[in-house]
Design brief:
- Strands 1, 2, 3, 4, 5, 6, 7 and 8 form an eight-stranded antiparallel beta sheet that branches.
- 35% of the residues lie in helices and 33% in strands.
- 24% of the residues are buried.
- It has six helices and eight strands, in the order E-H-E-E-E-E-H-E-E-H-H-E-H-H.
- A hairpin with a 3-residue loop joins strand 4 and strand 5.
- The two termini are 19 Å apart.
Length: 202
């Protein structure tokens, strides 16, 4: 990574991003040689896990070439230039936590493992419950389980980029954090906290 001040190598911090992000993007090699990118809702348990059709271009492409890349962002906020200057537009930026993963995909066929993954997805996106957990023996789910593909990307490399205005002076970072608190969106308050944390490494 060119800007080392943004680089994160701590595995636990990167995995926290992968657990928290709502949506990720999967990149793979299409059958015509052109790269493809699709958005996914997913779960993470050391693998990137998702469900989808057992047909179509993504499925066929990953069968032929299982190599894939995955990218997720768990926290972000736009930092407008006027936080620091009413004239100079070059101060604008975006704060975020992101992780890029490379690895190989596999198709999960074992019914018990499929249900375990689908239950992880339900726990992530519907934490309030109010559903019957999936089980291969449950008649309510047998038909849909046969028609649903479950996939895993096994990470081989992982890169984290956490950008919270580290390239700016301490004074500017404090001012940006103050402006974010004034703006007051939930993500603004979290980003302000992350910016203040960078002051310890200034």
């Amino acid at each position: 990574m060119r800007r080392k001040e943004f680089e994160v190598v701590d595995q636990s911090r990167m995995e926290e991003v992968l657990r928290r992000a709502e949506i990720g993007t999967l990149g793979f090699n299409g059958s015509d040689g052109w790269p493809r990118v699709t958005a996914l809702n997913y779960a993470y348990d050391g693998r990137i896990l998702w469900h989808g059709a057992v047909a179509g271009e993504r499925f066929e492409s990953l069968k032929k070439d299982p190599r894939a890349s995955f990218f997720a962002v768990s926290l972000q906020a736009y930092l407008p230039s006027h936080f620091l200057s009413e004239e100079n537009a070059t101060g604008s930026s975006v704060a975020f936590k992101s992780v890029a993963v490379r690895g190989r995909c596999r198709f999960i066929e074992d019914p018990e493992e499929k249900c375990a993954v689908l239950n992880l997805l339900m726990e992530k996106y519907q934490p309030e419950g109010r559903y019957r957990r999936l089980s291969p023996e449950d008649e309510m789910y047998k038909k849909v389980l046969r028609a649903t593909g479950v996939f895993a990307l096994i990470p081989e490399t992982m890169t984290g980029k956490f950008k919270f205005a580290q390239q700016k002076s301490e004074e500017d970072r404090r001012r940006i954090a103050e402006k974010l608190r004034e703006r007051g969106a939930p993500s603004d308050l979290l980003v302000a906290e992350e910016i203040i944390k960078t002051l310890g490494s200034a």
